Amino acid sequence: ESARKRKCPDDDAPSLLGGVNTRSNAADEDTGAGVGPQKSLVQSKLCFQASIITPRAKKKESVPKPKETQQTFLDVGQKNFGPKMCSVCNFIFHSGAKGDDAVHKIHHDVYAKGVRFRKFGPDEIAEKIGPHAILKYPLQGRHNAQITETLRIVDEALGSPPNVDPTRDGKIFIYVQDGRAVACVVAEAIERAYPVIPQADGHGQSTLYDSECPVRATCGISRMWVHPAHRRVGHCSRLLTCVRRNFLFGREIALAELAFSQPTRDGHALARKFSGTDRFLVYR
Question: CA-CA to 93 of 20 to 30 Å: which in 13, 147, 206, 254?
Answer without folding.
Answer: 147
